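re: the backbone from monday

yeah here it is again, tokenized this time
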């Protein structure tokens, strides 16, 4: 959704002689529109709901904003805070509901039950970058790391651990998930500084994957930095409309009591505040109050909007509370008059009453105490027990969490996004053990990459042929080779710096020509999917498989890519090596951070190379491909077989 337009909005606060206005608005984001309920007559849809999955980009061109920010009460606000407040009104769980027919029970639409609850155990990090320096940068110091965790418009911030590159937070957060297709868990780590906090890495996890696995307890490599990893335990809690396993849930969260500041919940209370009737007039007789409602469960309290000058207010608002123990806790409701700061009535509902109700739900008018004789408040209240359901799997499926990577949600934002050992390891044991002895796995070199192909570790799948042309990210194996090492120089191992590789290829072609008649694609073909995601600002390339034309006993092929003219090593993408085969299946997904206008001026350089042994005479180039990306179809994307040639020119689509 992109809107850029001029407008004329004027605002005047007479008491402070203040005028402000808006002359243009820009808004960009991904909006979801839900058309429900479906009905049997025209217009077929009873209502529609609109919301953004995550905070949209919003730019407002103000006039007179400086005057507005001088008004008492507003002087602490800034332009960015105002934009945050406005944009959060449109982000899940907030939504705009538009009724299309009058008979629709809008209350049903405004009582959305979350799809689930995500419990995030934010445990620890290791090997973070040291951002603080001393003696004008000569002495490398440590960092003061903290994390910011986002799910939709729910934001949590961890405590700061002072001067520690291996911090242990051991904090737990619980977040509501309303629409998990497209929703993500976003985590960013920062180093706290007096001026501007330094970035220490980020992580993005698709919630579909967490729901599938139910429980993930793993180390994740941080994106957008050269080193660092984060240990998370993620639990997907299902909302159950029965109390049959409540005792089991209560026992399980009591067992965690020794964890610091856990605040774990056994149930979720969902409340729709509809309206009130016959409220008393407040302090002044015959004057209508300005009613608002205070709702509290334990020490958590929320309040409704104020309705002005009425004793029959209609709120139509939704609230949710995490509940620690519904057998012991109460919902307390108080209606207050905002104008005179006095109570208009209250009542208390023990949540144990909900446990005895059908579907754990009550929808009725509740009589207010300490109020008028017929004062009532209309609410719909539901309780849902939070249950961690076990995934039904055969015992040999224990490594699925490592195989199905929490799918690279930002359209495969980094192919280095792979988990490591699922339990807390000592600092150096988290990487898969290299196959060749004497390799230092911390040096992110070509040799180290070659020494740990995905199938060298039991965590990775060996049968990769299942998804030869599928784009479902959960089926890919992710390459350990794309490590964001910032290097300005071209890679020594690249064929660009070795023109001799092309000469060898020409000689091999001549040998083939002398012995046989060459087919349509003498050097074989490669199947690629190429598309640009404007939402993520990335070029996505999926290397599916390729057919290699010669070498009787089979080669050890791998594919490497550059987005020309960038030939630096940090710009290289490389698949794993496929041993002794003429028809390797890679199914690996890679990305390049680049905008659509920029990528249309660039060329994708693809080379199929033979790994061979370290000193093998067969090591070298098997074929090349240069793909200009100036295509109108790039945003839509395509999957295609390409012919390999000796220098990459004249690529022809094979199918």
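seq for it, each position gets an aa:
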């Amino acid at each position: 959704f992109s809107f850029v337009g001029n407008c004329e909005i004027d605002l005047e606060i007479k008491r402070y002689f203040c005028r402000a206005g808006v002359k243009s608005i820009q808004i960009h984001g991904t909006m979801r529109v839900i058309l429900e309920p479906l009905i049997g007559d025209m217009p077929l849809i009873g209502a529609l709901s609109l919301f953004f999955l995550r905070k949209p980009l919003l730019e407002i061109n103000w006039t007179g904003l400086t005057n507005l920010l001088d008004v008492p009460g507003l002087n602490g606000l800034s332009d960015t805070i105002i934009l945050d407040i406005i944009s959060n009104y449109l982000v899940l769980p907030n939504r705009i509901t538009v009724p299309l027919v009058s008979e629709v029970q809008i209350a049903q639409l405004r009582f959305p039950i979350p799809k689930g609850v995500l419990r995030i155990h934010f445990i620890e990090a290791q090997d973070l970058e040291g951002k603080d320096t001393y003696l004008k940068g000569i002495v490398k110091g440590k960092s003061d790391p903290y994390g910011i965790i986002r799910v939709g418009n729910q934001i949590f911030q961890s405590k700061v651990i002072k001067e520690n590159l291996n911090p242990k937070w051991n904090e737990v957060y619980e977040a509501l998930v309303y629409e998990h297709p497209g929703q993500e868990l976003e985590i960013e780590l920062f180093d706290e500084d007096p001026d501007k906090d330094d970035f220490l890495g980020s992580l993005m996890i698709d919630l579909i994957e967490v729901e599938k696995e139910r429980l993930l307890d793993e180390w994740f490599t941080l994106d957008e930095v050269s080193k660092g990893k984060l240990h998370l335990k993620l639990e997907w809690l299902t909302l159950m409309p029965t109390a049959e396993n409540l005792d089991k849930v209560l026992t399980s969260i009591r067992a965690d009591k020794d964890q610091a500041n856990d605040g774990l919940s056994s149930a979720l209370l969902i409340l729709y505040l509809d309206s009130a009737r016959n409220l008393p007039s407040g302090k002044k007789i015959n004057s209508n109050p300005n009613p608002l409602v205070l709702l509290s469960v334990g020490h958590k309290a929320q309040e409704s909007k104020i309705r002005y000058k009425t004793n029959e207010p209609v709120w139509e608002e939704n609230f949710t509370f995490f509940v620690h123990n519904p057998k012991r806790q109460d919902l307390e409701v108080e209606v207050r008059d905002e104008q005179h700061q006095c109570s208009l009535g209250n009542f208390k509902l023990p949540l144990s009453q909900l446990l005895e109700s059908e579907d754990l739900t009550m929808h009725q008018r509740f009589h207010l105490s300490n109020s008028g004789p017929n004062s009532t408040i209309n609410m719909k209240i539901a309780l849902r027990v939070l249950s961690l359901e076990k995934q039904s799997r055969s015992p040999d499926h224990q490594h699925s969490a490592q195989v199905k990577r929490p799918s690279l949600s930002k359209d495969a934002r980094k192919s280095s996004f792979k988990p490591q050992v699922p339990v807390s390891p000592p600092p150096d044991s988290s990487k898969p053990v290299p196959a060749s002895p004497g390799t230092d796995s911390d040096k992110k070199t070509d040799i180290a990459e070659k020494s740990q192909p995905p199938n060298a570790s039991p965590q990775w799948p060996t049968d990769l042929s299942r998804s030869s042309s599928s784009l479902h990210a959960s089926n890919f194996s992710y390459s350990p080779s794309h490590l964001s090492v910032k290097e300005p120089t071209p890679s020594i191992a690249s064929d660009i710096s070795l023109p001799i590789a092309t000469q060898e290829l020409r000689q091999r072609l001549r040998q083939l020509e002398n012995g046989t008649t060459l087919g349509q694609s003498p050097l074989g073909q490669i199947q690629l999917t190429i598309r640009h995601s404007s939402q993520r600002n990335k070029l996505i390339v999926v290397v599916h498989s390729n057919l290699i034309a010669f070498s009787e006993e089979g080669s050890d092929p791998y594919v490497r890519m550059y987005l020309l003219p960038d030939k630096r090593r940090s710009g290289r993408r490389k698949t794993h090596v496929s041993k002794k085969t003429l028809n390797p299946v890679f199914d690996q997904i890679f990305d390049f951070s680049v905008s659509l206008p920029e990528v249309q001026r660039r060329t994708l350089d693809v080379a199929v190379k033979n790994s061979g042994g370290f000193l093998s005479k067969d090591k070298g180039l098997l074929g090349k491909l240069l793909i200009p990306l100036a295509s109108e179809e790039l945003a839509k994307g395509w999957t295609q077989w390409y012919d390999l040639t000796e220098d990459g020119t004249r690529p022809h689509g094979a199918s």
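Residues 499-515 form the longest helix (17 residues). Residues 255-262, 394-498, 614-618 have pLDDT under 50 and may be disordered.
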